[in-house]
Write a structure and sequence with these properties.
- The protein is of the alpha/beta class and 390 residues long.
- It contains 14 helices and 13 strands.
- Helix 4 crosses helix 9.
- It is globular and about 60 Å long.
- The relative contact order is 0.17.
- The protein binds (2S)-2-hydroxybutanedioic acid (LMR).
- (2S)-2-hydroxybutanedioic acid is lined by residues 13, 33-34, 125, 127, 178.
Length: 390
Amino acid sequence: MFDKLASQPNDPLLALIGLYNADARADKIDLGVGVYRDDLGRTPVLRAVKAAEKQLLETQESKSYVAPEGDRVFLDLLWDLVGGKDTGKFAAGVQTPGGSGALRLASDLFARAGTRRLWLGLPSWPNHAGIFGATGLTVETYPYFDVPTQSVRFASMMKAMTGAQAGDAVLIHASCHNPTGAGLTAAQWQELAAIVAERRLIPLIDSAYQGFGTGIDEDVAGLRQVIKAAPEALVAVSCSKSFGIYRERTGAIFAVAETQTAADIARSNLVTMARTSYSMPPDHGAAVVRTILASETLRSDWVVELNSMRDRLNGLRRELAHALSDGWQLAPQIAEQQGMFSLLPLSESEVLDLRKDHGIYMPTSGRINIAGLKSADIARVASVLKPLLG
Ligand code: LMR
């Protein structure tokens, strides 16, 4: 049977990890996969996570199964963090293996419910199209960001949405857009929420960077507006970045509806699809997040550390924008954008030359992970980039 299969290429984004590790140059710079790094290039385990793990080690008495939908206390606490208490809607969640697991279950649910089309803004996280295509959805696209001018194409996006039909799904990034870092204004969120509601589209909101943009509540303000306006919505949440627990694969998918019954029916479907795929989600990351969110002390320490990660990112953005400003007139946009990523107007061959000639690693799209910069690297990175951007 195996000889009937064609070998598949490595995922180009994840392959960057191996390429970077194999480079022997001491001054190499990793602006590839989206993980947070400190100024020493480390991705530390957060203090609150360590403390929660210690507590779990000491108090956990069983490794028996939890429940098909995962840890309900984790789900309730996470929904409070993301959806808040006054959406005026009912939510029902299922814990998933990471945000990708949540997106995949959402995609399965669309397929099961007969949703045929999903609208995806371009550019987007490269795995989005693959996840939605994998369950047979037709991926339609809407323009989101213009790389040469570093601006959101809001008018074109709204125009494209008028082509969507009632019942179509639409993927929306909650904040810290991956790969562009470019967000919507409050007025634009309002317009988006209105068109989603008016055309009876089903929003699937991907929230993977809460706290990395402006603040914990601010980063989900748009999401909450859309949920309030739309009769039904799905929200995919990743805990990877906000809690720094990437490899623990922790996330959730929430079905949001106007009645608890409708939300519960959606959840029962999500649970049965998970059961025939991976049965039940892994527990550890969710137990850690639950322990943090349930404890006043751990929660406030987590907020302090999350704020400091955001401050570091914003500081690096300002420093990079400043260092590029005498060679690239759009450099100030880098400081305006939010979260881990910005998307530079670089060609594939320029990106490959940056790797070969300077040991600077980024995906061929020209996306940079701002957190991969160290303050000491900024002058060198800027001097190499300026001739390409200017
Ligand atoms: C990224 O975009 O770099 C991250 O979300 C990691 C991933 O899984 O692609």
